[in-house]
## 1
Amino acid sequence: MGPGWPSQSLVLPLLGFLLGIAEASHPCDVIRGSYSDWIGSAINKDVVIVGGGISGLSAMKKLLEEQVTDVVILEAQDYLGGRVKTYREGSILIEEGAEWIHGGRRNPLYKLADSLGMLTQPLEDSEYDWRLKTSGGDEASEAGYSVAEEVFNQCGESSALQGYYDTAHGQCFLDRFESLYDDGSTSPEEKNAWLHYLNMWALRDGGVNDWMEQSARDVDQFIAYGGEDKLNQWSQGYDALTNYLKSSIPEEKIKLNTPVCKIFWESDPNGKALIVTATNEAYLTDYVLVTASVGHLKERHLQLFDPSLPARYQNDLNKIDLGVADKIQIGWESPWWEKTDPKPLDLHIIFKNFDLPAEESWLYGIMEVLGVHQQPNVLQAFVVGDSAREMENLSTDDVQRHFLKFLSRVTGQTVPEPSFFRRSQWGKNVWVRGSYSSYITVSGDQAGLKSREPLAEAIINSYGNRVIHWAGEHTHLSRYGTVDGALSSGRRAALEILEEIESDH
Ligand SMILES: Cc1cc2nc3c(=O)[nH]c(=O)nc-3n(C[C@H](O)[C@H](O)[C@H](O)COP(=O)(O)OP(=O)(O)OC[C@H]3O[C@@H](n4cnc5c(N)ncnc54)[C@H](O)[C@@H]3O)c2cc1C
């Protein structure tokens, strides 16, 4: 029997495990048993961190710096970084998750990447082969683009957002578009095409499922660092950040492929938390730091926490959501869009006719196909909103086939067979269940969630211990949806735990 297996009351969990294998729909459904079934085999830890994404790694780094060393990270997946996921194949390097460092010097990641000699600046707009096309392959109007751009910028301004605090961000887009678009000069189809383009642009930027879902107040709480027009990147991949954080953590303090399935937070007579993993390990700890995404928590909190989380926390989870936005990345031996002296492509697509066959309708969720930075032969498109979920349900071969046909139609060019193709499926990932940005919904705002503060508040058990702490992008008040927000949330949670430890002594 391997280490970590329960030495007492083994029969019940083991039976549950064996029965569960046959019917499990979630990797944690195999785990059965109560506190008393698991406590005998529990390993003691001062702190257990659930999740080895950027927030979890950052919390661990800070705790170690403060000499809190009896800590372990339990990560469900087989890699660290979570939504930071760099993929390499031959000379190709692409980001399945986070890609850009939003903002300039005020963003700590900008400074970090710069100090490590790993900052790369984006190309100027003029260095792209910029095309504005209809989905049928015709030239699209620059006037329509200017309106969409103007509305997009206006609805990012606090002065505009304040007027929409009690409603959806999308209402701002709709109103401003209506007042700025000149109906007189174009057809209803053309107007609708630009509205759709703007809609997809807003979803891609915000990462929300529907622009009528996110509260405008929530959008206004995001604080930009300045310099956002420049999308800086990690020159050797975003996972350089993961590796940087990991380098200060001893290997034995990280356990991959170790999903946390149960957190008993009221059962221990000393007021500790008992954590059970899908790998049949148990940990008894003073503090558990949960860094799982809002998508995972919304889906699993009833199974994960025993007893259930306090009603106020459960209610708040109902007031926030995580959108799905996916990426398609496609590469060739050489650029086909321009044979001589090719620039990276920046192809914007507007749908005047929604005439695609039903199975290809997910393509309506794409508004731009853009050359990947430092990868002259690779193009990337975001697929957003409902289209992302539709795309995730198709086979990779179908997605590739549909996309190639579409690309050929829009550009009017012959698109050769690619040598590389990938698409993400963040919505299907049971450990994330979404992509970049958590958002407070309009109904959530109306029901009282005006900021993310309550989601970051520790849970106190009946022994008076602040036993469950929270980190992750969704707990950051003003930089949610970003890697720097996740990084800073981990540090904040580590300092909170440190304060608890100090007050206990
Ligand atoms: C497609 C995409 C593009 C993005 N683009 C950008 C960008 O350009 N710039 C930017 O700043 N940000 C971007 N983001 C957002 C950024 O990646 C996230 O905000 C950030 O990485 C979140 O970190 P986190 O630690 O909060 O959560 P996560 O990265 O989700 O980490 C949580 C970890 O917990 C693990 N976990 C979950 N449940 C359990 C469990 N029960 N037991 C054990 N482990 C568990 C998960 O496997 C995961 O590793 C993007 C994200 C996506 C998906």
Note: Residues 50-56, 74-77, 82-84, 97-100, 102, 259-260, 291-293, 296, 325, 327, 424, 426, 431-432, 435-436, 472-473, 481-483, 486 surround flavin-adenine dinucleotide (CB under 6 Å).
## 2
Amino acid sequence: MLELLRTRRSIRRFMEREVEEEKIQELLQGALMAPSSKNRRPWELIVVKDKEILNQLSQCRGRASGFMAGAALGVVVLGNPEASDVWVEDCSIVATILQLQAHFLGLGSCWIQVRKRETPEGGKVGDYLKEVLSIPQKYDVECMIALGYPAQEAKPHDKDQLSYDKIHYNNF
Ligand SMILES: Cc1cc2nc3c(=O)[nH]c(=O)nc-3n(C[C@H](O)[C@H](O)[C@H](O)COP(=O)(O)O)c2cc1C
């Protein structure tokens, strides 16, 4: 597990290669087993493989999201605030599990923040995505995860360089 965590890095360049359906299903199974507050599972996932839609997703935040256009797939993570007051945490856990499972399967991934972010035109990124993906109004989009076979090398984390000063024992 520690080795998986050490070698996971954000990947923003992907090969043209498609991701096998079997791997996509494993990814999604992992996500669906995510823990959630009161086991409410207040999330919905939209899996996008269509190039044109990936292209539209990529435009939501300029450079911060542009690499979605080159991804083999994107998973949009949304939550229902009516279903849980901690939907943000629950969605974040799902997204993190997606990223770790992706790395385990030899895929690269990167989180693209949606909640609280604006489009280059100044609108809410969530509203733009609701339009593009026909998401019902009551949901809020937390993030999107871009995925695919990595086309870039990423240096693993160095265990000696971790911020050990952020760890406190017994009190701050
Ligand atoms: C909540 C969150 C939001 C992020 N938003 C973006 C984003 O919008 N665009 C992007 O390129 N990377 C985004 N990232 C990826 C971070 O930049 C990246 O995780 C961080 O720089 C650490 O690098 P590493 O993932 O390679 O360890 C986000 C990561 C998190 C956890």
Note: The first strand starts at residue 43 and ends at 48.
